[in-house]
Structure formats: structure tokens, C-alpha cells
């Protein structure tokens, strides 16, 4: 059936037909049982029932999806994927009884990853990070957020972010970078947190912004890291530079980080195990996405679960991400992350799938570009050998991806 859209479909067009499309559009997962997606120049120009599809030009490449399930490409909206070496040794210490905080105080923790990253070249970082990126991509990831935070001085933070940007040249994937200078106190700061925060806010952040290396600014608001007041200083500078903010909030204790993030209109507040009702209300009002990170919860054997029911009750949007990092979440599977969100926190299949697509896009400020299958967005989607969305959440350690499409390719 021809429609007004037909004149938009010209040469270089690709048509995926005979697909069961879970579009994740708007607030409900609209499903087209016999659907088609038409992409041109990397954007979706039609997505809907095949019967309504405009006539494609004879040159259009047509792919028969054979009734496979098609979802938006998956989005990992919180990772520390660019890092050097690993911390399997600390994993063993923790198995012998030490806590994450004890390991950190003993000179391990984030600071040991800082030493490794400073010693690595940008090329080393690319080489070490590519296998992790490839693992995500193999499960249908089309967009990944990558934070700095293991450099903790200007040169090494810039090196991390430049490596993250270069990963997007090495692979067909969208990378969003986040400056996390306020992640931990570097050894040379000699315990002077205020002094280091001043340097982050007044020197590092403006320079990173000037270099165009960051899409957002993040911080670790926690007893073992930085106070809400210290984070506010960094956020004030981010606002002045026009960069959106995010926050590692209320992961190990309730410092009211979620409410702080909301005050700054943050794209997201992440972790949130200890967030209280006031925090949830503030997030809902500000439209700040709750990024749930079950990998870290699982790996450090946290006992307190994030308040999913509070988020539901107050209408806080929820995303799910791997938090891929060497210390608390050496996880490179969004499929397993969804399973953990469901099994550990009681998230529904719909919430899990929205959490790695539509809501993850929102957490990155990319709602206009990706995260759902609809006209105008990037043609980012995943074609799965499954019959129902629940199968994507239910399996453990099995990858049913048939094909991944990034920007129409
Ligand atoms: N919270 C986390 O879980 C990670 N960073 C953060 O702010 C831990 C990072 C690490 O231990 O290397
Ligand atoms: Fe993190």
C-alpha cells in the first residue's frame, strides 16, 4: 500500500520484513506481529505493520526476518569499560572475607586501577577495552556510555575519554563519553578532597569541555569518595559549561545523592540502593532516570536492594546497565543484567527491556535518536531467535542474537 512516505523511500534503502517488532515506543511496547522496518541513510523512515508499508524501490535490499523478534538495539548507559588490567586479586581478598571498603582503604580499589591506567598508552587502552566492547556488541548493543575516572588528572582523564571516542571508530557502535574526574581521590592529593575537587571543577572539567571529550559529567557521591557539597561544586561548573550531569548516588549509604542529582536536573542517578522516598520523589519531579546496576549489587554481595517499588509508585523511569568496571562489576552482558534485574529486584520483563532500550536512551539524553523503533530515529535494532520478549530476560548465559543492525547497517 503506497502512502505519503513512499517518496522518502529511494535508493540505498533497506527493508526488513516479516518481523515481529517490539518497538518499545512511547510508554508501552507496541508490537507489530507482521511488521516491517524501512531504513534510509541510517534512519528509520517507516516502522509498522507490513500491510501499511510504502512501496519500496525495486533496488531496495529486502531482508526476510522469518518472523523473528526485533527489538531496539540495546543500550548500556553506564560503564567504565575503558580501564587497564583487572582486579581479580581483590576479588580473591573479598572471597577471603574483606569488604569492598576495606580493600579500598588498604590501597586497592579504584586507586589500583588508576595506577594501571596511568601506565597504559591510549593504544593499550583500546586494545584492552575492545574485547569488552565486542562482548556487549555480540549481544545486540548499539550504544554504550563510557566513563573516565581512572585517570584522575587532566592528561590521563583526557587519554581515557579519547580512547573511548576512538572505540567508536573501531566498531560500528555509538559511544557517549562521561567525565568522571570526581571518582576517587588520587594518591598525590594526599587526602585533600576539597583541593582535588577544586582542581576537578576549575581546571580539569573546563579543559575536558574545551577538548570536546565529554558528553556528560558524573561523580561518585559516597563516604569513601565525595560529599554532596563537593559534588555540587563540580555540578555547578558542569552547568556553567552546558554539560548535563549524572551521579553515582546512594550506593553504599544514603547521602541523599539522588535528591542532589535531581536538583541539578541530572539525566540519571545511578545505583540507588539506599535512596529514600524523598529522593525518589525528587527524581520523578526532575525527570531523572534511575539507573539500576544489579551487577555491582551482586558482585559486592550488597544486601540492600534499590527501592524499585518506590520508583514505580512515584513514576521514576528505570534503566538497567552493566556498570562494567574492574572493581565491582566485571560484567559485559546486558542479557544477564536484565535477568539480574528481574531475579534480584523483581523488575518485570517490560521494565527490564525498557531499561536497556528506551529508558537507557533517556538516561543518555538520546531519546530523540535511539531506544525505540520509530520513524526518524537511528535504524538501531536487534533481531533475535526468540518468540517472546521474556526469553531475553529469562535465559542465563545464552545469547539468542541473530543479527544486529546499527544505523541501518
Ligand atoms: N561505583 C562503583 O561501583 C564503581 N565506581 C563507582 O563509583 C567502582 C569502580 C571500581 O571499584 O573500580
Ligand atoms: Fe559506575
Question: What does this entry look like structurally?
Answer:
This protein has 409 residues and is an alpha/beta fold. 36% of the residues lie in helices and 21% in strands. It has an 8-stranded parallel sheet. Strands 1, 2, 3, 4, 5, 14 and 15 form a 7-stranded mixed sheet that branches. Strand 8, helix 6 and strand 9 form a beta-alpha-beta unit. Helix 4 packs across helix 5, helix 8 runs parallel beside helix 9 and helix 12 crosses helix 13. The longest helix is centred in the middle third of the chain and has 18 residues. It is globular and about 70 Å long. The N terminus is likely disordered. It binds 3-[(4S)-2,5-dioxoimidazolidin-4-yl]propanoic acid and fe (iii) ion.
Order of helices and strands: EEEEEEHHHHEHEHEHEHEHEHHEHHHEHE
Number of helical segments? 15
The average pLDDT value, as a whole number, equals: 94
The biggest beta sheet, please? 8 strands, parallel
Shape: globular
Rg over CA atoms, rounded to whole Å, is 21 Å
Q: Whole-Å distance between the termini?
A: 26 Å
* Residues in helix, %: 25-40%
Class by alpha and beta content: alpha/beta
